[in-house]
Amino acid sequence: MSKIKAENVNVYYGSKQALFDVSIDIAEKEVTALIGPSGCGKSTFLRCLNRMNDVIDICRVEGSIKMDNLELNSRKLDVVRLRENVGMVFQKPNPFPKTIYENVAYGPTIHGIAQSKEEMDQIVEISLKKAALWNEVKDRLDEIGTGLSGGQQQRLCIARAISVSPEVILMDEPCSALDPIATAQIEELIDDLKKEVTIVIVTHSMSQAARVSQKTGFFHLGKLIEFGPTDKIFKNPDNQQTQDYITGRFG
Amino acid sequence: MSEKPHIVKSYEEQLQLLKDTIVKMGTGVEKQLENTIQSLVKKDISLAEKSIKDDELTDKYEINIEEQVVNLIALRQPMAIDLRETVVALKVSSDLERIGDLAKNISKRLTKIGTDLPNDITKNFEIAGLKASKQVNAVLNSYLHRAKDTAENVWNSDEEIDQMTNSNMEAAVKHLEKNKNDIQKVTQLLFMLKNIERIGDHATNIAEQVYFLITGDYLEGDRPKG
Predict the structure, then answer these.
(1) What is the domain extent for residue A18?
(2) In this predicted structure, which of A217-221, A247-251, B197-201 has the lowest mean pLDDT?
C-alpha cells in the first residue's frame, strides 16, 4: 500500500531546476532507498517529504506529494505537525548538547505528548529500546548525548526521531560517518523499525541500499531514471544508466 | 545492453580474465572431446590417451575459475551484469569440467576395449558424438559472442541427442542378442553412448546459463527431451 505518492515533482533553486517530473510511490512499512551520484537530486527529493526545502529561500517545489491523501506541498499544511509525523536522521549524528534523556524527551515535550513524568520516562525508555540503545545508556541517561560514540549518537538521533511516533522516517546518509559495526547496528535497526514505520533512505552505499531496502530508486541529473524492487534493480535493471551506475561504469 | 568499461580498470581486467579463462577452458574441453571421438573414428588410441591426459588441465581450469569467482565476490561485490557474469562463470566451469570428465571416461573405456569394435554401434556412436561436439562448440560460441539465439538453439536441439541415444542403446542391445561374444565391448559401448547423452545435457545446462547471463531471465518451459 502506498504511503507517499509523489506526482510530477519539479524543484527549482532560483532559476536552476534540480528535479524534473519525479513521480514515485513509496510503500507503507517498507524501506525505500534512493541512490544516484552526488547532485542527482535524491536528497532534494527526500527533503520535499518533510518540507525541509522550506528553509531554503530560493527553493521552489511544484507538483503533488501526498501522504495518505494529505497534500504535503500545500501552503496551508501545518509544517510542524508534518515534521512530527515525518522524522529525519541526517548524515552526521547531531544530538542536542543536552543529556541523553533530554535528547529523546525533546520532541514529546514540544509536541505536548507526555502528560506526566512517568509517561515521559516510559516514552524515553521505549524509544531508546526501539533504537537498540537502551542497554548501553540506561544507567547514564543524565550524561550528555554528544559524549556517546558516533554510532551511539546516531542511534540516539533515531530514538529522538521515533519518540514522537512518526509514521515516516527519512534518513539522509545515516551511516556514512559510522564504522562497519555501527553501520550494521543501524541497518538492523532499520529492519526492525520498518515493521511500524515507513523509511526512505538516501545512501551512497549501493550495498547498503541492496541490504536494507525493498524498493530502490535511481536518480540522475534530477530525474528518477528507474524505480523498482531492490533485487530487480541490483540483479537485472531495465535501464542502461542504472546498470552503468551500480556496476561502476558511470561517467 | 552494450557495456562501457568499468571506471576501475583492475576490476575490468579481472572480469575479462574470468571470461578469457572460461573460453580457454572451453576450448580445451572441446579438444578433449574431439580427440575422444576421433580416437574411435581414426582407430587411433593415442588420441584417447591424450584426452585422458588433458583432463588434468581441465580440472586445473575449474579450480582457477572458482578462485577467481570467490575473489570477485569477496573483493568486488559485483552487481547486475557483473554478478551474472561471475555466477555464470562458476556454473559453466562446473559443467565444462563434467564434459571433460565424461570425455575422459569414454577414452578410458576405449583404451580398455580397443578400437576394433562392432561397426554398426561405433557408427552410431560417432554420429551422436559429433552431434554432441557440435552442441558444445555452439554453446561456447554463444558464450563468447553473447548470442542468445544460439544458446536457445542448443537448448532446443538436445532432444536429437536424446533420441539418438535411445535408438543407439536399442541397436546395441539387438547387436548383443545376435553376438553374445561381444558382451564386454558392447557393455562398455553402452556406457560410452550414455556419456555422450550426458555431454549433451551439460551443453544444455551451459545454454541455460548463457541465456541467463545475457537476459537476466531463465529459459522457461520444459526442455524438449527425446
Answers:
(1) 2-95+167-246
(2) A247-251
Q: What is the rounded distance in angstroms from the CA atom of residue A20 to the CA atom of residue A11?
A: 7
Q: Tens digit of pLDDT for each residue in B182-200?
A: 999 999 999 999 999 999 9
- What is the Cα–Cα distance from B87 to B76, expressed in whole angstroms? 13
Chain B touched by A243 (CB under 8 Å): yes
Contact B79 A236 (CB under 8 A): no
pLDDT value for A251: 63
Interchain CB contacts (distance < 8 Å): A and B: 42
**Is A235's Cβ below 8 Å from some Cβ in B?**
yes
Summary mean pLDDT of chain B: 94
Judge whether B131 lies within some domain.
Answer: yes
CB A132 within 8 A of CB A57: no
Domain CATH for B40: 1.20.58.220
For range B60-66, the mean pLDDT:
98
Q: In DSSP terms, which residues pair with A89 in a beta bridge?
A: A171
Average of per-residue pLDDT values in chain A: 95
**All three cell numbers of B70:** 570467490
| Cα radius of gyration rounded to whole Å, chain B | 19
Q: Is any Cβ of chain A less than 8 angstroms from the Cβ of B78?
A: yes
Query: Considering only alpha carbons, which residue of chain B is nearest residue A238?
Result: B1
Domain-embedded: residue B14? yes
- Is B3 part of a structural domain of the chain? no
Residue A249 distance to chain B (closest CA, Å): 4
- Determine, yes or no, domain membership for B2: no
Please write the tens of the pLDDT for every residue from A25-79: 999 999 999 999 999 999 999 999 999 999 999 999 999 999 999 999 999 999 9
